Amino acid sequence: MSPRPFPNGVYCPLTTPFKAQTEEVDYDALKTQVVRLAKARCGIVLLGTNGEASHLSDTERTSIITAARTALTAANFPDTALLVGTGTGSARETVKLCNEAKAAGADYAIVIPPGYFAFAIGKNREALKSYFWEVLDKSEVPVMIYNFPGASAGIDLDSDILVELSEHQNCFGAKLTCGGIGKGHRLSIHTQSAEYKKRHPTPFIVMPGFSDILLPSMIALSSGCITGTGNIIPKTIVKLYDVAEEALRTGSLEKLREAQALQEIVSLADWAIVKAGIGGTKYALDTYVQAGLGGVPRSPLPIAGQEIHALLARDLVRAVEFEKSLP
User: Fold this and answer.
1) pLDDT by residue (tens digit) across 115-134?
2) Which InterPro entries does this one have (predicted)?
């Protein structure tokens, strides 16, 4: 069966809510957040960095995917795609997680370079290509490459290797949490060419991992963004995408200026969430969205302290107020 479509737009890597004291997964909160994001027309990413995937057992991974799919179907969003993080230390285990994710209800996988042995493979292009090629060959779901040096011990895939990987028929995109707009532009130029489309009929998605560069990235041919700030202000970021897309499609200077104003709101909020981290994002969910929605991180990640509380109260409230003004 073909995966559900993966349209351009805004996607959110959900936090995984854990209950205080026990640190068990709060499936009710997870389901509420999944449906809330779907209603905001925000795409769903599970078990990524924000989702603390490295803190989860294989059984919990499967249960989270199943719970999300069940919630979406029950809320009349059966066609919403699930992009699921499956990257781990070896190609063999990553393939296993990709295929288990499919069985649980995932449509796509997102795979980060294996950072534990970065000292051995980080500068070895052939080893990195071999890892991804094996995963792409054997995964039963299409794979997005996840370039995040901060979470992979500094491994930073350049546009040359991303272009090479994009040629695999099972590679459908790249998430660039390296902030490289130029890198994304070069990859988009390659994958949006008529010659590439003849070889690779499936559309290729290029997305930054931050929403503070959504507008400039779209100008540089990106397909949208995948942003943790979507946990807090999904409707605002979706509106920014919609207005920017209209400005680029129609050439409207008025819409471009509207997009610039929205980007200002989003950029300030995105930087606040980046500084607040996962613990701060969960605190913001509980404080500014709905009590009980965020929960706590699993040890050793810290909960948000007073300094983070103050930072969010100062730098996030404007965006939260705008979010609440949207239908």
Assistant:
1) 999 999 988 999 999 999 99
2) Aldolase_TIM, DapA-like
